[in-house]
Amino acid sequence: MASETADDRWWYERYITYGFVAPLMARANAGENIELADMFDYPTEHGSDELLAMYDDAKRAGSSTNGALFRVVRFRVALAGALQLVNVAAQAATPVMVRGVLVSIENETFEGLYWVLGIFFGLLLGNWCNQTHLQMMDVATIRLRAVAVRVMFRRMLLMRSHEHRRTAADLVSVIASDTERFKDLAPLFHLLWASPLLVAAATYIVWRFLSWPALIGVAVMGLLFPTTVGLAAAMRRVRETAAPFTTARVRLIAEMLQGIRVVKMYRWERPLTAIIGHHRAGELTQMAKELACASGNNVMAAVAPHIAAVAVFAVYIHYIGPLRASDTFATMSMLTVLKHPMIYFGNALLMFAQAVVAAKRIREVIELGDDRGDGSVRTGVRGSAEVLEAKARRGGDERKLFHEAVLQWSSCEGPASTAEREPIAGTEPTEPALCDYAPFSVGPVTLGARPGAAVCVLGPVGSGKSMLLRAVIGEVAASQGTIGARCDWGTIGYASQEPHLFSGSVRENIILGLPYDRDRFVAACAACQLWEDLASFPAGVRTVVGERGVTLSGGQKARVALARVAYAQSPLVVLDDPFSALDARTGRLVLEALLDPEHGLLRDSVVLYSTHAPQHQWCAGTVVALDLAGRVTVTTNDRLNMPLVLSSPNAPAA
Q1: What is the value of pTM for the model shown?
Q2: Exposed/middle/buried for 462, CB within 10 Å: 0-12, 13-18, 19+?
Q3: pLDDT tens, 240-257?
Q4: Domains (ranges, CATH) in the chain?
Q5: Do the Cβ atoms of 609 and 454 come closer than 8 Å?
Q6: Beta partners for residue 495, in sequence order
Q7: Dihedral of the CA atoms 497, 502, 503, 504 (nearest 10)?
């Protein structure tokens, strides 16, 4: 079923009966497991690639960031608004038709039959329009959130770290929390205009029923508005108060699970359980307050129409005269209709205000950094990466990586503390200890490379090797000189000192979303000396490595990361001391298999790798030597005549 989308089913199944989910519901009711293959695939028009293309087209047309985001959902939002308008008309017309039925009964005519049919079809149409409007707003929210998250991730990946001006926690909060505000607003968005419209229509209709006393009932119902706004604000404050308790509890549980061996060894279960219980108690206290506010809101919703009706009828009887049954029931019906917009209009205003703030924060993230020439990669034109890779792999002119560049960490540009000068124990006011130290810098350096070349960055620990390599991938700024544009290479393969693995199988960690090619996979595993390890794993290449590769040793994680780079075969490869976690023999074999000028898997790529071991420089055509003062010396390496030695055990099935 995964190749079929819900849009491929008949329209009545999608918009009336929702029959397309019946098979899934039947399987779930029977207790069967539902797998991904049983689910419908998402329609192509809702895919992030299509949405990103629409966003980029709008930006090229001169739209603002918010305007380009809204373009992705404007049709569905407008259509949902039209459906909500029909729903408002049906709700306003229902009390009128109820009055017609009662008048027909009083006059003993057959017109009541037509009014009854009108009530039936009016309610049916109104409910269908309301439900379809909610469905369309949900789809619009999914599209809006998808394109916003995609654009923010693209911006983060294309920016240098010193341009972020935000912590990782801030960015995670924007991506995870602020985009959820759109989901909260979606079902209430059209109430911002539909509620006042329905109140105005209801006021006019009830005034036609009962003359001026009808305004008393509308005024009583209007008192619901400030009450619901106050209760909604109180619930929001309660949730904000409960958030620190929830965060502390979840963090403590996660830390306890990660260090469960230490917890069991020292028998810390009871004190940790007591701390978790304390946080949970505070959380439950706030939840009780929130439920009390919600209960108050529900009580107001149930009681207000009756109080309003009593007030209207009392004033009418006192000043005008006896009531007719038709006017009484029609007025009661109309006041009940007003209950929904009066209650939820305040919530809609609060959600709208929160969504505006969230949209501002999202726009700030999207507009971080500059828009300088990253070419088509930054504008999102599909296929550009493949074109750039093809150009990067062609031999010929040397590409400049650095030109008279002086590098320094942006985090070293100021003192580590922002504390004010204050006297301590009668001494002179103190300053942060690091403020007297100049930031560490590397350079100046001028370096170029052509496809098929290997560059070794050699130096002791603390000499700035990682800084130099991270400058190539755009994570370190140049205070002087220039750094080559990273987008010129299309894609960059990168392996850091601390390999990043996710909780998937070994094969998934190596191919990392690329199409699976068995020959390339076998060659990458053989080059990184992985087959002997894979043969000992219970499920071979399908063995799950756990979160962050927790089930693997340090050397195995490093070789999986190197196999990932070897499998990708990017035109530019950056290896930040990947051989430090390997023993001398294994490091030698992996180095030869990857970087040998004639037979290595990365022989067609530009490879920059760092090391503090001089024996690893033999396969590099250029050696960049660094010292502890940040001085750089670039020399040509003539030691390119070492023999290739490979050890490739029989590969198990991949």
Answers
A1: 0.60
A2: exposed
A3: 788 788 878 887 887 888
A4: 6-38 (no CATH), 60-209+351-371 (1.20.1560.10), 390-414+436-636 (3.40.50.300)
A5: yes
A6: 575
A7: -110
